[in-house]
Amino acid sequence: MSRADWSFLEHLLEEGQEYSTGVGRVWLTVLFLFRMLVLGTAAESAWDDEQVDFVCNTKQPGCTAVCYDKAFPISHYRYFVLQVIFVSTPTIFYFGYVAMGAAKEKKKKEEDEEERTVEGGGGEGRERGGVKKNGEKKREVRKGDEIEELEEEKRGRKEVTALPEVPKLKGRLLCAYAASILLKVLLEVGFIVGLWCLYGFVIPARFECVRDPCPHTVDCFVSRPTEKTIFTIYTQAIAGVSLLLSTPFLA
Predict the structure, then answer these.
(1) d(Cα 84, Cα 225) in Å, to the nearest integer?
(2) Is 207 within 8 Å of 214 (Cβ atoms)?
(3) pTM score
(4) What is the pLDDT of residues 36-48, one digit of tens each?
């Protein structure tokens, strides 16, 4: 996955950043700079030759392929990509929930303002019910002017309040935020523990393989094991930092 392939996920997170809390913005910065950027540039090149340069000391057809499958059931790089996507998903859903609530509230306020304006114009018309037709025309003109002024005021408010305020965490919004944080923490911990159970955090330079169709125990060698180990430790250390940024809310 190249750097450009992250654009869709980045766009979703950037659009919702305006609805995030202070700690949430720090978490997003860590996600963008230290996880997605590194995965899209440096880490990808470290694993682009993993299967080609996985060499075993045998010429038995198919032995190298089955040994590679045994050594790496899933590529480290693809595992890191899945980790970022799954951990980001609860935050994206939370931003979507907040954006929908903000849009509904904004629409309701606009409808209430329009109703108050129309009711004000109607009352003025009733007070002058005995006036002749030119009076009615004047009232219609005044009502039209008031609506135009209201629309201009709304446009002015939209320009001034281009960036919505961070919503207050209470009621359903608080529950949604807590659920997203809890799910994010569980996913982060799950991926860290899963990586440890699959491979550990250190990639050895040599694997011993006993598997059909290999005729005997063969030694297989991994390309650039030290570089891959460094990237593995780095990604999980940043995952730990993200975890620390998420846990204070649940404490």
Answers:
(1) 23
(2) no
(3) 0.69
(4) 888 877 777 788 8
